[in-house]
Design a protein that fits this description.
Elements (H helix, E strand, L loop, with lengths): L5 E7 L1 H5 L7 E7 L2 E6 L3 E11 L5 E12 L6 E7 L4 E6 L2 E6 L15 E3 L1 E6 L11 E7 L4 E7 L4 E8 L6 E5 L2 E5 L3 E6 L5 E6 L9 E5 L2 E6 L3 E6 L9 E2 L6 E5 L2 E5 L3 E6 L5 E6 L3 E7 L2 E6 L3 E6 L2 H10 L3 H10 L6 H21 L3 H10 L4 H5 L25 H5 L3 H18 L9 H15 L3 H7 L6 H10 L3 H10 L3 H12 L11 H11 L3 H14 L1 H8 L7 H12 L7 H20 L5 H17 L5 H7 L7 H10 L3 H11 L3 H11 L5 H17 L9 H17 L6 H7 L10 H39 L23 E3 L3 E3 L1 H9 L2 H9 L4
Antiparallel strand pairs: 1-28, 2-3, 3-4, 4-5, 6-7, 7-8, 8-9, 10-11, 11-12, 12-13, 14-15, 15-16, 16-17, 18-19, 19-20, 20-21, 22-23, 23-24, 24-25, 26-27, 27-28, 29-30
Organism: Cyclopterus lumpus
GO biological process, one term: endosomal vesicle fusion
InterPro entries: Clathrin_H-chain/VPS_repeat (IPR000547), CNH_dom (IPR001180), Vam6/VPS39/TRAP1 (IPR032914), VPS39/TGF_beta_rcpt-assoc_1 (IPR019452), VPS39/TGFA1_Znf (IPR019453)
Length: 856
């Protein structure tokens, strides 16, 4: 049994029907709304009222109340009952006679004047539930005659019946069902479809009515269910075509009914329930002594000879959930889709989506990923339901909560896998594939951040190649949730891409630099350094470029040079930095690089100066960089650069520096003193211009500045008292600060005679001290040199032997030596000690020292 589709519920118990009369048997039944009619073998019709009672647990039961019973006045059993509710009549077949009975009083309806209310010689009849007559107070009825091979069509009114058509059949019919103009007949040896309006007929298939009781059951518009040979339930439409596969019931079926989507069949011992959708047996119920099975407006009623039961269908959703609980996914889906016609469209769409989602999770748990993905897609699954199975994949900020009631039985992936790592891995690979497919579709609308962040985490964990593609394209990955995962799996390059995508280029570069320097380990890119340089080349953030270009160039100058040569490198700031770096290389001291850098610096300054409003801070930094280059480098073309700024009065300081490089110190000092009136800058210029020159050059340069101060205003410019005073004070300050540089005598000749010595006191004091210092320093130097010379001579004498004998004479007195004590003159010449002493006494220096000592 696949599913419990029905429950058998008692409706009318034996005691209520027959009391103490044990020989009464039920022959036929009819149900109209809550009214149940039964015909018995003693020619009675019993009328019951059935009330449905639902318990607190939702279980359905029936309460039957007997309203009336009536004897029909014949000695035969009541064979058939059919209700015509619009006429408030029962059509009764008893003893071969069809007559009308009032539904309320059960009284036989008398014949109307001019017409009869009875039909005689009838073996069976049926009501046309798809009438062709438009009269609502008229019922169409097909009648089988016991003596002729005909089918008669009657119109049944409130108090009469009227024959309207009689159709001849090839054989004696034994069962009939009518739908519109179509008669479905069970003849003696076969079934056939007959159009009584046109006379057209269609043989269906053979059947031996003598072996088995034929079954002809209308189940829908122009469609019939027939009992065929071999225990098959065959479907046939009005054209004689079977559009459904047959159901395989038992050989001994005695009754059948349809309660969509099921076919219910009754045999001697069981009730079997087959699906019309897949023709499979779904349920079997034990039911002994049953001999009647009818469906009335969707209600299936069975009867044994003594009691009546209702076959209550369980709610469709419960049936589907039972199938899903037993992992019968395909059957559940077939049942859901087959029931579409019986469910309101909006409700069906909601139900269908949920069933598809549940089916998807069942197949996901069975690792049937292709089928699961298809069900998720058709069911429009909120992808977060799937992501939530994977621990920690959903961002902490996600507001998602799982569907209730739940779509599956799994707590999480670990519960599903039960420790099977291979299963976990396969599930993760499936989620990677699924998220990659849906992230750009409507499925991810409203939850793109959750999807992309989960996908990033999976890519990082699985070392997937698509991680970089995700981060390099449009994405909604949450930075705060992604950082720990990328760091955990050492995906620092990917983390840098995430920073870059979110506008945090500085953080990205810091991270990449740590990897390139070996502080962090990440083997994603072997050419990370080249990537960083390329990133800087294309960056429009000048501050960022200046910040990190130094590192890039120090790391590998060769690569920096190569990028400098690229014509497509649009980042001028980086080009400047690269040229700066080149200037630091002693192997690349070339004029063109220095000049190029200077031009770039100058263009940058001119650009800033032309902006409105001007950024004074940026201008100051740019000019400082330009001035530093002018002072430090000796290789640029100064005259060329001077020409570029000739008419720029805002760059006078830079022009003065260039004049200094060209040894045009008078022009430089003229600019500094007379145009800029920047006296400290003029002094700094003299210090810089003479920094690598001798003292004579330095002295000349300072004397030149002093002369500019003392000469006053240049020709053509009126002399002012204030201007002359400023220059005189600048001259005094210059002398007092740098007095040791000047030639004091020359300065005194240059100074105006009206200046007081008190004003020049600091200069004169420093000049005298400098002179005395120089004199004494020279004396010390001479003494040290003399001492060093004597020490050298001593070392020579000591290291070279001197021979003295009686045959050698003294070079001073020319007498021979009588003793070994001698004094050695320069050149290693021995003399007597007393001769040397006499010579020292007679020397002019000795006499001078002796005379001077008398004055102390």
């Amino acid at each position: 049994m696949s599913v419990k589709a029905f429950e058998l519920v008692p409706a009318v118990e034996r005691d209520l029907l027959m009391g103490d009369k044990a020989r009464i048997n039920i022959e036929c039944i009819e149900c109209c709304g809550k009214h149940l009619y039964m015909g018995t073998n003693d020619c009675f019709i019993h009328h019951f009222l059935l009330d449905e009672v639902t318990s607190s647990k939702g279980k359905l039961s029936y309460s039957a109340q007997k309203l009336l019973h009536k004897y029909m006045g014949l000695k035969k059993p009541v064979a058939e009952l059919r209700a015509a509710s619009a006429l408030e009549r029962l059509i009764v077949l008893c003893d071969g006679i069809v007559f009308l009975v009032d539904m309320v009083t059960l009284e036989t309806v008398p014949s109307a004047a001019g017409g009869g209310a009875k039909i005689r010689g009838v073996t069976s009849f049926c009501i046309n539930e798809n009438p062709v007559n438009g009269d609502p107070f008229c019922v169409e009825m097909g009648v089988l005659s016991s003596k002729r091979r005909t089918v008669q069509i009657y119109m049944v009114y409130e108090d009469r019946v009227q024959l309207v058509k009689e159709v001849t059949t090839p054989e004696q019919p034994c069962a009939v069902s009518v739908d519109g103009y179509f008669l479905c007949l069970a003849l003696t040896s076969q079934y056939m479809i007959l159009n009584y309006n046109t006379g057209a007929s269609q043989d269906l298939f053979p059947y031996n009515s003598e072996e088995r009781r034929p079954i002809v059951k209308r189940i829908g518009r122009e469609e019939f269910l027939l009992a065929a040979h071999g225990g098959l339930g065959m479907f046939a439409n009005a054209e004689g075509v079977s559009q459904r596969a047959p159901v395989n019931w038992s050989e001994s079926v005695i009754g059948a009914a349809v309660c969509f989507p099921y076919v219910v069949a009754l045999d001697e011992s069981f009730i079997t329930i087959h699906s019309m959708l897949d023709q499979q047996l779904k349920q079997t119920l034990s039911f002994r002594d049953g001999h009647i099975l009818q469906d009335f407006e969707g209600k299936v009623i069975l009867a044994s000879t003594k009691a009546v039961y209702v076959l209550v269908p369980l709610p469709l959703e419960r049936q589907i959930q039972d199938l899903l609980a037993n992992h019968k996914v395909e059957e559940a889906l077939i049942l859901t889709e087959g029931a579409q016609q019986n469910i309101p469209k909006e409700k069906f769409q909601i139900l269908h989506k949920r069933i598809l989602q549940q089916a998807g999770f069942i197949q996901f748990g069975q690792l049937q990923f292709l089928e699961a993905k298809e069900h998720f897609r058709k069911g429009q699954l909120d992808v977060r339901e799937l992501i939530s199975l994977y621990p920690l994949l959903l961002p902490a900020s996600s507001s998602f909560t799982r569907c209730h009631p739940p779509l599956h039985e799994f707590a999480d992936l670990n519960h599903l896998a039960q420790g099977d790592e291979e299963k976990v891995l396969r599930c993760k690979k499936f989620l990677i594939t699924y998220l990659g497919e849906v992230r750009s579709t409507e499925v991810a609308n409203g939850c793109r951040e959750d999807v992309d962040t989960a996908l990033l985490k999976l890519y990082a964990e699985q070392n997937h190649d698509s991680l970089l593609d995700l981060l390099a394209s449009d994405n909604a990955c949450l930075v705060a949730d992604s950082i720990p995962w990328l760091e955990k799996y050492h995906k620092y390059f990917a983390l840098g891409l995430l920073y870059h995508y979110n506008g945090q280029d500085s953080a990205a570069l810091q991270l990449w630099i740590q990897v390139a320097d070996g502080d962090l380990q990440d083997s994603t890119r072997a050419d990370l350094y080249e990537y960083i340089v390329d990133f800087l080349c294309s960056s429009s953030n000048l501050d960022l470029v200046w910040k990190y270009a130094d590192w890039a160039l120090r790391k590998d100058p060769t690569v920096g040079y190569q990028y400098l040569k690229l014509p497509q490198m649009s980042n001028s700031a980086l080009r400047v930095k690269l040229i700066e770096f080149r200037l630091l290389s002693p192997m690349l001291q070339k004029e063109k690089f220095h000049t190029h850098l200077a031009v770039l610096y100058l263009e940058r300054v001119l650009t800033l100066l032309s902006q409105s409003p001007t950024d004074e801070e940026q201008i100051s930094r740019a000019r400082e960089r330009l001035q530093t280059l002018f002072r430090v480098s000796n290789l640029y073309r100064a005259q060329f650069l001077l020409g570029k700024m000739e008419n720029c009065e805002q760059l006078l300081l830079e022009r003065a520096t260039l004049h200094g490089k060209l040894e045009e110190h008078d022009k430089a000092l003229h600019i500094l003193v007379h145009k800029l009136r920047d006296f400290p800058a003029a002094e700094a210029f003299c210090v810089w211009a003479s920094s690598c020159r001798d003292s004579v050059y330095r002295e000349q340069l300072f004397h030149l500045l002093l002369g500019v101060y003392l000469d006053g205003n240049p020709p053509g410019k009126p002399q002012t008292a204030a201007g002359g005073g400023d220059l005189e004070m600048a001259a005094v300050d210059l002398l007092n600060r740098h007095g040791e540089v000047f030639d004091a005598v020359r300065v005194l000749h240059m100074l105006p005679e009206g200046w007081s010595l008190q004003l020049l006191r600091p200069f004169l004091g420093r000049a005298i001290r400098a002179s005395m210092h120089a004199c004494r320093t020279s004396q010390i130097a001479m003494g040290l040199a003399h001492s060093e010379n004597r020490q050298l001579l001593h070392d020579r004498v000591r290291n070279k032997p001197i021979f003295v004998s009686e045959k050698k004479g003294c070079h001073l007195c020319h007498n021979t030596f009588s003793e070994p004590d001698v004094v050695c003159l320069p050149g290693g010449v021995p003399v007597h000690t007393h001769c040397v002493a006499q010579r020292v006494r007679d020397s002019p220096t000795k006499r001078q020292l002796t005379n001077s000592s008398s004055h102390t």
